[in-house]
Design brief:
1 helix; single chain; mainly beta; globular
Amino acid sequence: MSDNLKWQALDAEDLVLVSSALQDGITPVGQIKFDRTARTLTLLVNRFRWEMPDYGKGERVPSILRIDGVLGVKARGINRANPEGLAVILAMEFTPDDEPPGGTLKLTYAGGGEMQLSVEMIDMMLADIGPARGARSRPDHTEA
């Protein structure tokens, strides 16, 4: 049995699961790719494996997130001039348009960054693409 995750999100309920799997995922800024012609946004994410048992520092696994039906992308607080820079995903949320299924998909990043995607509908796939490795540290969301 493989521990690799592969989820498709087609509605708000699915999106909650994908968002939780991506929490604290680290994305090299240069690996965020918007293909305007194909209307896809693809991110390479080194995600923390929250779904695994709580032990030690945990694991990270390389994953791909592909979002389909993307009509436009707006970003702030993400330095695209530094492709080696890292962005840490905190959450994703969807706000439907007045006439669903379209809407705005917001990806929130640590440090105040965000991406807002105008999408035709919720349509995304998250898949692990390599073996897990030990994490350097376990993400900590307690306030000081």
